[in-house]
Specification:
heterodimer, A: about 300 residues, alpha/beta, TIM Barrel, 12 helices, globular, B: about 500 residues, Aldehyde Dehydrogenase, Chain A, domain 1, Aldehyde Dehydrogenase, Chain A, domain 2, seven-stranded mixed β-sheet, six-stranded mixed β-sheet, 16 helices, about 20% strand
Chain lengths: ~300, ~500
Amino acid sequence: MDRDSVIRVPVDEVGINERANSFTKRSIKADSKLEALYLAISMVDLTTLEGADTENKVKQLCQKAMEPVPRMVFQELAKFPRFRPIPQVAAVCVYPAMVPTAVKSLKGTNIQIASVATSFPSGQVPLNAKTDDVKYAVSEGATEIDMVINRGAFLSGNYNQVSDEISLIKEICGPAHLKVILETGELGTLENVRLASDIALLAGADFIKTSTGKIQPAATMPVTLVMLQAIRDYYQKTGKKIGMKPAGGIRTAKQAVHYLCMVSETLGRDWMSPLMFRFGASVLLNDLLKQIYKEMTGRYFYDKVFSLD
Amino acid sequence: MLDKNDSGQLSVDAKKTEFDYAPSIESTKIVNIKKKNHLYINGKFVEPESNKFFKSINPATGEPLAEIAEASAQDVDHAVRAAREAYSKTWSKFSGKERGRYLFRIARIMQERARELAVLETMDNGKPIKESRDVDIPLAAAHFFYHAGWADKLEYAFPGKSVTSLGVAGQVIPWNFPLMMAAWKIAPALACGNTVVLKPAEQTSLSALLLAEIFEEAGLPPGVVNIVTGAGETGAALVSHPDVNKVAFTGSTDIGKKIALNLASTHKKLTLELGGKSAHIVFEDAAIDQAVEGVINGIFFNQGHVCCAGSRLLVEESIAKTFVEKLKYRMGSLRVGDPLDKNTDIGAINSLEQLSTIEALVEDGKKQGLEFFTPENITLPKKGYFHRPCFFNNVASSNSVCRLEIFGPVLSISTFRTPQEAILKANDTQYGLAAGIWSEKGSKIHQVASQLKAGVIWANTYNKFDPTSPFGGYFESGFGREGGRHGLFSYLEVR
């Protein structure tokens, strides 16, 4: 796949924006809302990716992942007829150096350990450094790898290089799931987003992911819609179901519900599971909890009742 | 919810999520529908001389909503007299600035009462609340705002010419966009200094009567706008009234022709906005998913009750198969049902009569052996008038579903091989209201557009309306334009 043979799928930005906007007009109420909020929690990849991350910070995040709701609140909620146990989040996402800490903290749970690798977020290191990064994370117990594509290569038209890197990393991942971050905020156009998605899908991604969260704009609904359409077309051609992860910028339960409407109307029910769809977000979790509390009790809790991390 | 299976990967436990949209019904408490609705003449709601009333049906339930007065020829005469008096005594004496002030006020009150108007429109017409809320009512208000701006600038609209108002305008509007059509008619007429007698469609009179309340609230002088409700006879009495200076009609081509004949030997100025069988041309270099979306919007918007509906899809043969597959998939996610549900995409067919018309034409297409598709997962409500969104594939230009205006959620799909063939097929119709072109190649869009005989041509989008843009047709789609500077011409004497 090089510049001459690559097939660019045209994308009309006005049309995409319009369609993406239509999902924000969906009115999700009552049981559907509760269902969506529960589902969204189970799809969260709780994330800390700071230079300032410490073992303690990661331990605290893992604690939040395992028990997002303080016991006191939990007991109060359990009295309501619509109550169901609050699900755990899908994964905790950390830098490779923090994988051992996360593994230790999450032992005995089925929360996945995701690690960004390939010199996240820029990816501007030699290939062997990227592969070492991934090897280390996998050997320490990461079950999911979030790699970044080589945007420099992509923007200069070296699509082969982008594709080869993804295939190589996929091989190194072994049983670990590979999420390929396109960093759509650096790709400039929706047509580039579509092309990068197609390259990642063909090269063996298990998930495609919008952003690192370090570049603005991060996940937006139009960008996510373009990627979902790429996934749908790939599925219809090959029968392979690839997952999707918008990351960065999804902060409220309402936004999350709009994303779920978009996924369900674009890809269908099979994608409505943490196996196939994730939210890369951490602030989102508390708003989801807050809204669940409101749905059950009819009132909002004092904000401070949910811990920040 | 999450579990690891033997290979250590995630799997979902047995209880698969059943994420679906629970009903989210817009409350009807905001509207207050009177049992008996009278005529609005000379600033007052008056009983019809005939003392006859007919029922307005909620098409989503099939049950009557209210009784509407049937205006006789005598009532129409009262209305025209009131309009004439208002014209000579007040409205034509007002400066443009003064007229504009009233129009701005009307537009603002429409916005303030938007929710009430939207709910009423949906109950009376059957269109989804999301459309009345996001399209009909905002656009209706926008038409008043836009024309309010013109009211004191008419002398600049036609540079070097002098303009004067015409007098009394008799306007007859259809049931597909009741309030929006009323706005398209009334706003330019008033801005240009004319007075109005409006006859809404007998199926959908209620929002026009609510608009009359808004005129009162805005303090519009009596007689400037009069509303006479009724069916064909009332309309005929209005357009043939000798003291009407201008007739504007939007509706079926058949009635339009009758009006044109009726007016042939008179001094009356006439504009007609009639039917259509508009072509949607999709080239292989189009953004396919967005084109699919445009086709969906083109034919299923407002249940296909749109004169400019993109009811003939012409798709380039090289992508036809893919395109039709994508269209089928997308149609599967359409939600047909209660128009008051905020998640409904396709609401009720406006009347039993229209439903039978659509069904007969669909039956005809099936009898001709055409390939028919409708999504299996869609179930229609048991009560009310509904029709499944559907299409006929591989249709020939000679098939009736490709020639006749169905005015329902029924698409006909044909293929073409070259741009020349696409243009030929698009123009192969008695109508000429609108067309859509889908291609990522700008030069191709311009080349094709310049050869299409259609009043409105959309490129890479469809069904976009704006008061600044003129709207109207070629051939049997009518003549005259509404909206924009061109629209003013229909309500002015330009010298």
